[in-house]
Amino acid sequence: MWVGMVIGTLVATPKDESLIGFKLLFVQPKKFYQKQIRTPVVAVDTIGAGTGETVLVVEGSSARHLIGKPQGAVDAAIIGIINNIELNKYLLEE
Amino acid sequence: MWVGMVIGTLVATPKDESLIGFKLLFVQPKKFYQKQIRTPVVAVDTIGAGTGETVLVVEGSSARHLIGKPQGAVDAAIIGIINNIELNKYLLEE
Amino acid sequence: MWVGMVIGTLVATPKDESLIGFKLLFVQPKKFYQKQIRTPVVAVDTIGAGTGETVLVVEGSSARHLIGKPQGAVDAAIIGIINNIELNKYLLEE
Amino acid sequence: MWVGMVIGTLVATPKDESLIGFKLLFVQPKKFYQKQIRTPVVAVDTIGAGTGETVLVVEGSSARHLIGKPQGAVDAAIIGIINNIELNKYLLEE
Amino acid sequence: MWVGMVIGTLVATPKDESLIGFKLLFVQPKKFYQKQIRTPVVAVDTIGAGTGETVLVVEGSSARHLIGKPQGAVDAAIIGIINNIELNKYLLEE
Question: Signal peptide location in the record (chains A, B, C, D, E) (predicted)?
């Protein structure tokens, strides 16, 4: 899983019917100590997240299974809202 | 999922029979605020998209399940046409 | 899926028995308008492709399902030979 | 699988119920002889690892299957604590 | 699949019980004509490979299925020892 910030929303019409009723959010992966930003990912919100919140994202087939639709058109989902991160910076490689 | 623009089409003969009847489109992932362009992906169109449209793409096993063929030779599918994107640029990391 | 050129062949002995009877080809992903070349991938040929041909490659669990062996040791397969690509260059981001 | 160091912890509320009872750890992939650091990954701990330990991480659907929940919201898991690595540096490409 | 060289071994205790009895090897992906080296991957050996050998590696859910354990903690496996590679260098993009 990875940590990112919800930076926006997206509306698609038409869209696959498995997505109907789900909110689609743009999530920018957090850079931490890296130099390059990464591309925002579109994730299904399963937890009630909103713009500006730091969230936990799962990718791949686990995201599809999560929405309970075996044919679901989903490969990324928000599965948590993050309250606290504790990193030991002395352990980071440079 | 990710957002891209349909930039072209592709014809393959022979091709795996699971692909027969599906349109194959080139989709260029949108860069947003990144520096590098990314390689176009070949996606199956399940929604009726055309060149010049901004679309939502799902990858991996979810794309295969979507076309309803358990043995389908598919790892990317267009699942929506995007009407509107709202990004809060102030939330972006630089 | 992605587009590449068959640039060579590979012989492995011993190899997993699910691969016996399949041809293994090196496929170089096409760069299009990118600067960096990408590493050649080893793909199972399911279509009768040969060196010098431009092919369509599927990756992940879809490639395994394709060869009809649930325990198959495969994560990339050639699923089509490409005759024609039409790209609208004016739509490309730079 | 890949090798990394546990560099911290993370608390998420609310979170998907499949994660309840599991510890979420930040793992920094080890660079070895590379120049760029990679982004820390959030992995479920299945082995009892702690900050400062070098661990083995599995990704993708294998991580989900590991926690024994077919609908689990998991795509990365710590599956071992590493005691010893022996690399033959003369075999490395530069 | 991809081609790499076995550059070392790894011992993990404790480790997930699905790994017991399997040898874990570090495999460095071969660069071919690329500039950047890639990070070594930890793969389960299913074929009897050793340090210094050039091997074929499969990733993802195919690697898990290969060891015959539906809950196996595996996302990469060595599936062949490579005897011969024939590349047509004139077909490479630069």
Answer: none
CA dihedral B69, C5, C46, A74 (to 10 degrees): -20
Lookup: tokens for A12: 């698609």
D75: enclosing H helix or E strand: none
Distance to chain E for C30, nearest Cα, Å:
8
Q: Is B23 in a helix, a strand, or coil?
A: strand
Does the distance separating the beta carbons of E86 and C9 come in below 8 Å?
Answer: yes
ipTM of the complex: 0.93
CATH of C2-83, one of 3.30.420.270, 2.40.50.220, 3.30.1490.100, 2.60.40.10: 2.40.50.220
Buried/exposed code over A62-85 (b: 16+ C-beta within 10 A; e: otherwise): bbbbbbebeebbbbbbbbbbbeeb
**What single string gives the DSSP state of each residue in E5-38?**
EEEEEEEEEEE-GGGTT-EEEEEEEP-TT-SS--
CA distance D53 to D38: 17
pLDDT at B87: 92
